[in-house]
Amino acid sequence: MAETSTIFHTLVELLRWRAVEQPEQLAYTFLLEDGSEVSYTYQELDQKARALGAVLQGVGATGERALLLYQPGFEYLVAFFGCLYGGVQAVPAYPPRQNGNLDRLQAVVSDAEAKFALTTSGILPGIEQRFADTPGLQKIQWIVTDTLSQQLSSTWVEPVIGTESLAFLQYTSGSTSAPKGVMLSHGNLLHNLALMQERFGITKQTEGVIWLPPYHDMGLIGGILQPLYGGYHMSLMAPVSFITKPVRWLEAISRKGATLGGGPNFAYDLCVQKVTPEQRDALDLSKWENAFTGAEPVRPETLAKFADYFAPAGFRKEAFYPCYGLAEATLFVTGGVRQERPIVRDYDGEGLEQNQVILVDAPNDTTRTLVSSGRVALCEQQIAIVNPDTRITCAEDEVGEIWVSGPSVAQGYWNRPTQTAETFAAYLEQDGAGPFLRTGDLGFVHEGELYVTGRLKDLIIIRGRNHYPQDLEFTVGECHQAIAAGFGAAVAVEVDGEERLVIVQEVERTHRKSNLEEVTTAIRQAVAKHHELQVYAVVLIKPASIPKTSSGKIQRHLCKERFVQGGLDVLLQSTLDGVTASTEDLAVNQGAGLNREQLLTLPAVERQMVLETHLLEKAAGVLKIAATQLANDQSLNAVGLDSLMAVELKNELEECFGVSVPLARLLDGPSVAELAGDVLEQVVANAGDGRSSTPITVHPNELSYGQRALWFMQRLAPESSAYNIARAVSIPGALDLAALKRSFEVLLSRHPQLRMNFVMQDGETVQKMQEYNVLYFVVEDATHLSEGELAERLSVYAHRPFDLARDSLLRVYLLKRSEQEHILLLSMHHIIVDFWSLAVLVKELRELYPLMQSGSSVEVGQPNDSYGEHVARQAELLAGVRGEELLAYWKKQLGGTLPLLNLPTDRPRPPVQTYRGDSRSFRVTKDVTHQLKQLAQANGATLYMTLLAAFQVLLYRYSGQDDLLVGSPTAGRSSAKFADTVGYFVNPVVLRADFRDQPSFSEFLKQVRLTVLAALDHQDYPLPLLVEKLAPKRDLSYPPLFQAMFVLQKSHLDSDGLTGLALQDSTVRLEGALPFAGYPLAGQMAQFDLTLTMTEHDGELLASFDYNSDLFDAATIERMSGHLTELLRGIGEAPERKVSQMPLLTPVEREQVLYGWNDSQANFASELCLHERFEQQVERTPHRVAVAYEEQSLTYAELNERANRLAHYLRSCGVGPDVLVGLCVERSLETIIGVLGILKAGGAYVPLDPTYPPERIAFVLEDASISVLLTQEKYLSILPEQSARVIALDRDEDEIAVASGDNPPSIAAANHLAYVIYTSGSTGRPKGVLIEHSNVVRLLDATDHWFQFDEEDVWTLFHSYAFDFSVWEIWGALLFGGKLVVVPYEVSRDPQAFYGLVVQAGVTVLNQTPSAFRQLLAAEEAVGVSPDLALRYVIFGGEALDLPSLSPWYERHDEQKTVLVNMYGITETTVHVTYRALSMQDVQTAVGSVIGGPIPDLQVYVLDEQGQPVPIGVPGELYVGGAGLARGYLNRAELTAERFVQNQFGPGRLYKSGDLARFLPDGQLQYLGRIDHQVKVRGFRIELGEIEAALEQHPSVREALVVAWDEVPGEKRLVAYVVADRSLTGGDLRAYVKERLPEYMVPSVFMQIDAFPLTGNGKVDRRALPAPESGRRDVSTQYAAPKNELQRQLAIIWQEALGIEQVGIYDNFFDLGGHSLSLAKAHHAIQERLLHTFSIVEMFKHPTIDALASFLHQGDEVAEPRLGVEQLRDKASRKKEALNRQKQFRKDRRK
């Protein structure tokens, strides 16, 4: 920073110093238009300023505001500095033109509360009367300054001002209509001037030439104050002098040899436009070192043009100095490095419009080239790029609002506290940093450089997409020679509730009489081409008439106002008639005719133009807009083409021209011109084929692949109604029953698929048409039924299963409610219809009914048998090259391991998939729907793509999986000829979503768009066949390939709400002769885990979740509906936000999980330390036994005395507050004496279990810098060498005994350390957790209301005192007067001996890890339940509790007598976090380890990876806040900062636990395991990485991996896998590790393998590791022949079904290539030939001949009757019922 800023505190001091030290130095020279010059010295300026200052002081103006009304010149400088000298705040302004508008001056005077106005004697007469006649200006007191006597300067008194004093008000004159006064202090100005001097490289030799207006920040601060600060000479010229003749500025630079000069972008543009080559050649610009530019967007084109044009004059591109600043930051914010070329980069323009920064290598039409505005690191102020909505710092690749903090930031806006707070007092949401200035500018930082992209308030947002006005204006300025570049404005106006684009543009003076219609057309086409944006209005105005500020900036807000109010000087205005086409327009659009033959008869040169005209009208008709609103070169996506419209247009093209246009091509958004080119190319290429289609042989009995799959699924579950399509409607009014029935009979005759049955014939499935057209039509009187009974009756009918071989697959039920109301129910099997077909049937039914009523004759016509052609063409396609291409695509798309959607469920998944389901309907508001449609159009996508993307985001947020598969149906009607055919055409496609790169929604939508387009281009490959080809691992518990489906229902016939009926929306009405009203059916069937169906109706989205009710509760799906609604709202509002940060929780749920289930008010703080509380207990119960060990015991008084003596002794050894004392003793009375003695001395104990390896003890001693170590003599030999003073309690007993037995004065406070316990570390390095006295004391107080421990309680110290569970055991006993029984180590490892101790000692409070308790239960079972067992509580902690494992306890004990409590806890949060009292009901019904709710003074949050709360039921990481949090980790500041984070939901910190959990609906927490593979064994938390690190230290081990295997539910063992250079034994490795790790960290199994299996992305595949001692026999690949006749017959059948020559009895059917159809064929043959009736499900369960023969043989013996799949399912469920909850628990823990 320049030295000047440290010398002076005010500008007055600065000018005074210059006047005294450099009186004769020229300060400023004014260049007059006549070529003359007038110069002034510092002394002259100072003298005149003092004179004016004295006058102002004399009239009482000090502290007031004074308006400055001057032409640029010396008098203005005198007035400005005179105000500073007089202590007056200047308000610079420009004098109004003759008869000019005074509105702005009026507003400034009013806002500034200016009482004085300063001007010259020449100006005053012209404005004095006008002020007097203007309200608000009459009371101004005028002061003329050019006639003052200089003698007044001697009467001046220096004002009392300082750095913080207000210097002047800088009124902004940008795009806002209400000017605001920026308050600039002397300190602001001096800091900014110093910053500019340093960045500009200013010296006393600098020479400047400036034309900028002195009443604006750039001219006043940069042109007047900066030379004063830097002490260099500045030449000033009037702005009008430059504007009228730009060469004057350059001539002055040339003449003066200036090194400094600049201006906004337009100034350089103006020079290029107005300076002639002859004038340029006379210039010398070689000394120009700093050509700064700012104040408006810096265009690279301008810099390049100026540099190129003036290079002959010596100008160098390195002189350009782009910078960024604004009045609210004084002036200057950032700039680059002087004499370096401006940094110019190319970015993806579409990305910037979505607020994403994407650098491009090869520029294209969408590229946006930006110029850096400076290097952030050099600005000496803090700059942040912030999301303006969330106020969270943007990522490096995101555009956000520029925020600035630093000494240059102004004091605020004068007299505007609210706007000041909004603009100058912004704080970052994530960490509260601030205050910041919100600049309102958008930009980003890339590679350390700041790039400004536009103004937040000037942004034009149309259809959800950001458009920068300067980009649009540049496009317009380049599109036609008649346009005056740089003199236009792009603004948005609201038309019929929608933002529309208006271009206001000056015309060049020489083109005023040109064809202006041509100009408007050029503008529209250019904007459509470059921005895919429709221009609503083009307003061409007269030259020099566009509204500008006095500094020459275009005032867009005034352009907008005058457009709306009609105040522009218009030459020509072209406005679109409207956004919706009239009825006549649409009729004309759709009536125009042109076909293939007509097109070919035209001359070749005319075909493209005629076809474009035709397609323009057709496309407009499909889009429902007027043809005049669609440009030939405009993308169809830009005007809202969606998938259904694309299908309609595709059909039109095929019908008219016999061409094939892929749907994906249409959805890719071609223009009409491009589409015409595609069509014409095909028409010409096929000109000789006579339009005849290829003959094809139709086999009417063949099934399509989709039908085959449905037949198999029905065969798999014959009693299921999962594939019934049932819809009910209410028919209001009188009904002609006969007419209705006859209408259905016509439909039955017209559509053959409605009369089909499906049977096995010669081992193949075929379809056969019923011989007679017999309609299944049931009429029932339902007048007597209640609404509930009616719903139940309809549900029964709707879910009646179909026998595909025998039943009519169309059922019509009519239930009469009254003469004026009937309920019509259609139930059909999906194998004969799809939704498109349903739309056809309903349309035709509503057309037929009035004809039947009137008795009109109806032509039934020939049956529409084109479904058979569809089947044949499908077979033909698959047999050809195209079929191979389609398969190759899907194999690539679905390559690798396919992810299984793992949504959090309310119940375990049944072993066989069920179809029981239900549905939940909801709506998305019109506003959100409108936003989503706009977003889709802005991204060249469809509403379908946008909603699909949102659904995939929802699944991602629920599952946490970054690789997802979702199914979605396509119409499957590849040709227009199938448009009216009824049949099962629909073919689902599999859509894969990739979230690995954490995309924004806009980015993800682009991915989805490409995925959908590619899928549609390959949609003709049948999904069932794809399943067979991919052969995924078959599992009956879930559907193959995908488990979630997305459907956007939109009927091709939907003009009156048919799609609403499809979603069974009760509010939907279809009027007409046969009116329908939606009637929802109860009890749905679910083909998938979850299906989202949506449709648009009446401007809003109707949605329905169909879900498997065996997996999900209704309440879960209701919450999910709310989450999707919230997600869609967030997407619509901020699509640039990352999908992981999109809102999900409803406000109510967010409030519940953050605050409703957390008590932030509870306070159990205590000023007492642990030993002080103990001493209070000693006073109460001195003679009660406090601690016992084997035959020894101490009373409270005795224990206190022993501890006191040790404490006094330790103090003499230097122990005091926060001094760490090692404690290495065996379990005994000395353990408790040592702990108490250390605390009483003021220190903190560090437990060192003597059973630990010497290496670990040595590490802790060194890491904790232990200066005093308490131990016993027998351990001295095993302790490592260290510098600590070693005290052996037994050896030094005599010395200790002579110390005082009184309580030592307490020198520790509650916030001092009590202990440091070391826990396992993920890097192989243990870490010490720092726990204070207050942490432990509040734990006991906060839980007292639950337990009410007292003097009668007997506790055990069962756990190692190096395990924090011991803290609870020790102080739970000693602070409440209880007895603590120290359990000998050997007894703790012998469950029967320990059980005996518990009974014998009368233990009432037992603390156990679940693993230890299971062993205790087994011991109790072995010895029998003792009647003397006295337990009041069994408290679990340390590891996950498997609730079913407690069943034996509850079977033997009264749950009222002994309460079992589950308490989750972490060392870092002081032992316990949650509490859950258990019951027998929990054991029977609870899923997983339910850990309850938080202890009252703690808060628990379940958060996602972004730190945001997850929905109820969804897993996330558990965070803990409150009074239990540790101080941190010893000597691990970085780790402490990583794990102990700021609480964004309240005061204090949160501990990031690394544990996975979820909230249950009742607010209880369910523990799901460790996120990072860290496990707990026997209550010890283990970082597997620490064991791996120890193993890898072995000289022969190259790699090591440790996994925790579940042997039985809830019990783990550690298995180590090693890759070594030589053969190693488990004994070798075990011995090696035992020397380095505690016993509980030594793996029980060691397995040596050649190499670790890897996943596709190179990570170790843990699931592929061999199971330890699995006992599984090796699978033989050798052929095994049948052993008996049954096996031989089965082998023959399998060979036939599979088409292979040999099948062994151990071969797996599916491994041999078996699929659903071959399985069905084999199943049918077995039943037919072997006379065995059994479910096809059994073939999945017994996939080898050996297993199946055993099953069938067993069936013979039992004579098992035919079982339905539900019975089989129940049977299988019974077998697995005992293990279901355990399996789910283990599965949840692995998530």
TrEMBL record:
Can you give the residue ranges of the Carrier domain? Answer: 606-683, 1681-1756
The prosthetic group or cofactor this protein requires is:
pantetheine 4'-phosphate
What is one GO biological process annotated to this record? fatty acid metabolic process
What do the Gene Ontology cellular component annotations say?
Answer: cytosol
Keyword annotations: Fatty acid metabolism, Lipid metabolism, Phosphopantetheine, Phosphoprotein
- Supply the PROSITE patterns for this chain: AMP_BINDING (PS00455), CARRIER (PS50075)
The ranges of region (Disordered) come to: 1763-1791
Q: Which CDD domains does this one have?
A: A_NRPS_Cytc1-like, FAAL, LCL_NRPS-like
The UniProt GO MF terms for this protein read:
catalytic activity; phosphopantetheine binding
Question: Which segments show compositional bias classed as Basic and acidic residues?
Answer: 1767-1780
Q: Which Pfam family, giving just one, matches this sequence?
A: AMP-binding
The lineage's top-level taxon is Bacteria
User: By its UniProt entry, which PANTHER family does this protein fall under?
Assistant: NONRIBOSOMAL PEPTIDE SYNTHETASE (PTHR45527), PLIPASTATIN SYNTHASE SUBUNIT B (PTHR45527:SF14)
Q: Of which family is this protein a member?
A: Belongs to the ATP-dependent AMP-binding enzyme family.
Q: What is this protein called?
A: Carrier domain-containing protein
Organism of origin: Tumebacillus algifaecis
